[in-house]
Design goal:
Blueprint: E1 7-10, H1 16-26, H2 33-40, E2 46-52, E3 58-65
Antiparallel strand pairs: 1-2, 2-3
Length: about 70
């Protein structure tokens, strides 16, 4: 399992289509592309990270919110 993915990086608009596709396949009420763009527009509050294979294919993502006084 250690070779499932190789890289984690901050998401940019270039990889957003992959996230939207994963999200649409995973949830009955998925986020829209616009919702992801809104998150990308708030770097002081929100982080989107993507897990990629060595060949650059996005295989997963994580959304993190920075909330005051929470760890």
């Amino acid at each position: 399992m250690s070779n499932c993915w190789d890289v984690v990086r901050i998401v940019d608009e270039e990889s957003l289509d992959f996230l939207v596709d994963i999200n649409n396949q995973s949830f009955t009420h998925p986020w829209t592309r616009g919702m992801f763009l809104e998150e990308l527009g708030q770097p002081e509050k929100s982080y989107l990270l993507a897990a990629l294979t060595r060949s650059g294919v996005v295989v997963g993502y994580c959304s993190i919110w920075n909330v005051v006084d929470e760890l």
